[in-house]
């Protein structure tokens, strides 16, 4: 699996995650440890530390897992829950609807 993020401040490095379970893209623990703790927080601390920023997720199972949501609410300033962000809007999710479409 490949993960990446973009913002008005720039882009993160791509993160490659080896997934061992057939039919599972990524487990919640792996998402939290490798993506959120290993990529999102370090990038945000370096690039967005002095501004108000939001993490947009598409609410895949690993993103909406109880432990992931608890971690996000505790670790990310101003975290928006699922009921605030329209996760399936192509206008709001450029990576899912534009970038990955080109890559596929």
UniProtKB/TrEMBL annotation:
How far does the signal peptide extend, from start to end residue?
A: 1-28
From the Swiss-Prot or TrEMBL record, what is one GO molecular function term?
A: nucleic acid binding
Please provide the record's keywords in A-Z order: Signal
Q: Which InterPro entries match?
A: RNaseH_sf (IPR036397)
* Protein name listed in UniProt: DDE-1 domain-containing protein
Signal keyword on record: yes
């Amino acid at each position: 699996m490949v993960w990446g993020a973009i913002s008005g401040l720039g882009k993160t490095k791509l993160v490659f995650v080896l997934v061992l379970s057939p039919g599972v893209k990524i487990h919640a623990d792996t998402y939290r440890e490798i993506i959120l703790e290993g990529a999102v927080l370090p990038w945000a601390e370096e690039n967005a530390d002095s501004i108000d920023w939001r993490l947009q997720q598409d609410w895949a199972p690993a993103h909406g897992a109880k432990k992931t949501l608890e971690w996000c609410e505790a670790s990310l300033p101003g975290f928006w829950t699922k009921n605030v962000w329209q996760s399936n809007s192509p206008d709001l999710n450029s990576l899912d609807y534009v970038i990955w479409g080109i890559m596929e």
